[in-house]
Amino acid sequence: MAKKRTRANGDGTIFYNEAKKLYIVRKKIGRDPETGKLIFKEFSAKKREDAKDKMDEYMDQHPEYNPDADKRSLETYIRKFLYEIKKPAVSPKTLQRYESIYLTHIKESDSSKNFCPFLYSPMPEIITSQIREWYGSLRVSESTLKLINIIIKGSLTLALEDRIIQYNPAHAIRMKNEEPDEDDLTPVLAADEQQLLIRELNLNDPVHRLLYFILATGLRLGEALCLRWSDFKIINKEKHVVVKRSLTRIKNDGSGVYVDLEKEPKTKASKRSVPLPKKLVDQMSSWEHRSEDLVFPNPEHDGKTYIFNKTPARHLARLCRQAGITEVTVRGLRHTFATRHFEEGTPIKTVQKLLGHAKFETTMNIYTHVMPDIKIRDAKNIDKFL
């Protein structure tokens, strides 16, 4: 049977493919800049309406392909910024964070908490005071406001490059520089609390082994979750763990289901080798393994899949309550690792390399405020000079 083609205004070409038993929408989305040939995109589904909905959703996300979209609106350039500039440059997880900020705080929708009042305005009409007034009305955290500003400012910069506007009205707006607030920093364990936690650990449990490993090496949770036994090397006669990948959980665009993906670490500095303490090496000698197996397999799935990334946090919270100590997060174990180094006088530059920080300032800003007893000890050191 021949393909039946129909076409409505703005629908593209819709036809039913007997062989595939699917409705297919074929839509022109542009031209190849080198050859000038037309570029088409197809959307398929068992129902005609579903195929059309897929096309509409795609066109909504890519208004630069939509001849009816206002080419000069901020909304058009936000989508260009997200999908042409950010998408190729950032990880899928980071892109989802930007999308979440856009849908929750900028775009008008059923789920939005805020709405940009000039989102659909022609950009030449947007002025700095409008943006500043809107930012001032938002009841969001400083970090969320910074992300909103990144999207708004970046989109306007694109418009400036395209000569849609003569100046960027967001350029004059300065975000508040956040200094670490000691009361808001990630809690860490004191040395005696660390020992109490270790006594609570059952090192026959892969989740408890994972917590112990992070406490001993300072690895990020995502780095530790996807470690394999082949990632351990002998360097200068000492055993090291070589960090060369990280696990991230992102939402699948098609199904909406979250999936685990291994990827390269975000920065060059994150690719590193970390020496293992002797007590950790001794403990690990009794852990059964094969070269390509996960070091910390999920005990609930025959040991062949990753531990669910929220499981360690639940175990750790319970262990802290049992031990009667400060309740810390898994990230707090990483901070605790750094704290022990600072207490023992390890140079900050060395701690930076162990933690895999790309910038020295990151280590300084976070970890110079970790423990009150370090400050008291250091203050008392001045006595000998007085």
Automatic annotation (TrEMBL):
The UniProt record lists the keyword DNA-binding: yes
PROSITE patterns according to UniProt: TYR_RECOMBINASE
Keyword annotations: DNA recombination, DNA-binding
MF term (GO), any: DNA binding
Record's signal peptide: none
Tyr recombinase domain: residues covered: 184-381
A GO biological-process term: DNA integration
Organism superkingdom: Bacteria
Keyword Heme assigned: no
Family of this protein: Belongs to the 'phage' integrase family.
Protein name per Swiss-Prot or TrEMBL: Site-specific integrase
